[in-house]
Write a structure and sequence with these properties.
about 220 residues, alpha+beta, 2 domains, 8 strands, disordered N terminus
């Protein structure tokens, strides 16, 4: 052949282009083969981490539920152990027997106390406050004399007349009254209507001009 000797396909310029395309093809093949495995590995790792987190979350939830249930059970048990305050009925008529386990003084307003009762007070009732004395809760020697109370009791034989004493352990205390004063009062029932009738009867005697209605409870002062 004339001219330059034939270099063959190995030395042809298109051979280099083919090699480049072949290399790129091989690279794409490698990438396409390896990428799914890498992604699969990452997905498996991610799934395992999520599973671990899910198990941890479930374990934490179970622990919280168990703790809450235990706490509720403990509170319920504690509430069951605590004895509720009992509002006991008052013995407002001195002519009727008062079935009670407690010992009351003649000037006290008695009420029915069951056996083995620890915490208690009475039901709400109305009283007519007839007289007050004293100016301090330290004036324990100042109170309405028992003689005056018994004389007043004769005027109202069906309604207990009672007097308060200094707020000391073992004495009765009366709500809605001042600790700085001792008083003499009369039981006036559990309704406003009855209390108003008794107040009218008290005022009709003309002996207690400052008489007034008071709603209260009574209980023993703690020891």
């Amino acid at each position: 052949m004339n001219g330059e000797p034939f270099r063959g396909f190995e030395s042809h310029p298109l051979r280099h282009l083919w090699n480049l395309e072949s290399g790129i093809s091989n690279w794409k093949s490698v990438v396409c083969r390896k990428t799914p495995k890498a992604l699969q590995t990452n997905m498996i790792s991610s799934t395992r981490k999520k599973t671990v987190r899910l198990k941890s979350t479930r374990a934490l939830s179970v622990a919280l539920i168990t703790t809450a249930a235990t706490g509720c059970f403990g509170l319920r048990t504690f509430a069951q152990k605590r004895r509720p305050v009992q509002h006991l009925p008052v013995c407002g008529n001195p002519n009727l027997p008062c079935q009670t386990s407690a010992t009351f003084e003649p000037h006290d307003l008695p009420f029915r106390v069951p056996k083995n009762t620890i915490i208690y007070d009475t039901e709400l009732f109305y009283a007519i406050v007839l007289k007050t004395v004293g100016t301090s809760d330290q004036d324990c020697d100042v109170f309405v004399p028992e003689r005056e109370r018994t004389e007043t009791q004769r005027l109202f034989p069906d309604h207990k007349v009672f007097t308060s004493r200094c707020p000391e352990p073992g004495n009765l205390s009366y709500s809605n009254t001042s600790s700085q004063h001792r008083f003499m009062a009369m039981y006036a029932g559990t309704t406003v209507a009855e209390a108003n009738r008794m107040l009218a009867a008290v005022k009709a005697t003309g002996k207690f001009p400052g008489a007034n209605i008071r709603r209260m409870r009574t209980s023993f002062n703690g020891t």
